[in-house]
Amino acid sequence: xxxxxxxxxxxxxxxxxxxxxxxxxxxxxxxxxxxxxxxxxxxxxxxxxxxxxxxxxxxxxxxxxxxxxxxxxxxxxxxxxxxxxxxxxxxxxxxxxxxxxxxxxxxxxxxxxxxxxxxxxxxxxxxxxxxxxxxxxxxxxxxxxxxxxxxxxxxxxxxxxxxxxxxxxxxxxxxxxxxxxxxxxxxxxxxxxxxxxx
Length: 198
Description:
Layout: H1 2-23, E1 31-36, E2 40-46, E3 53-59, E4 64-70, E5 75-80, E6 87-94, E7 98-106, E8 111-113, E9 119-122, E10 125-129, E11 132-136, E12 144-149, E13 155-161, E14 167-171, E15 178-186, E16 189-197
Antiparallel strand pairs: 1-2, 2-5, 3-4, 3-6, 6-7, 7-8, 7-9, 10-11, 11-14, 12-13, 12-15, 15-16
């Protein structure tokens, strides 16, 4: 038994070392590889990442299975899916500008990325100037709901972005000084941005 455990650990270390060597060769290419050998494993290779990228894996019930973040432009990791139940899990790659969601189908003998079901949500960017806030919406953000709350969590303004691109300027000049919070909701996800008026 001890010999088998040692062999398994050695194989895992070899796989990880081999992967790390390959990760530096394609730094600018973002890819996700899936392999199924004696055990199920998802090999994740990311390049050209912005600082502060968060990487998480969730199950279908919304339970967090894994969390990591990186300030490097490259990220490499081997995920052992042997102990997971069969079904769908979700890999999320989140930076300041966007959230990428990749479903992975786990079966008794493999793990496969469902590329056709990949979702990329571009987060809105808020630029505040005197008396106004200009919000830049990324592509594919149709039906994004925008809500502005005051410090008491009362709704000041509500709007739905119909076309999913472009920008909109919100007039804040008639609001009292204080802290306000934009809430952006799309594809079942919510993002927030705080503005301070004084």
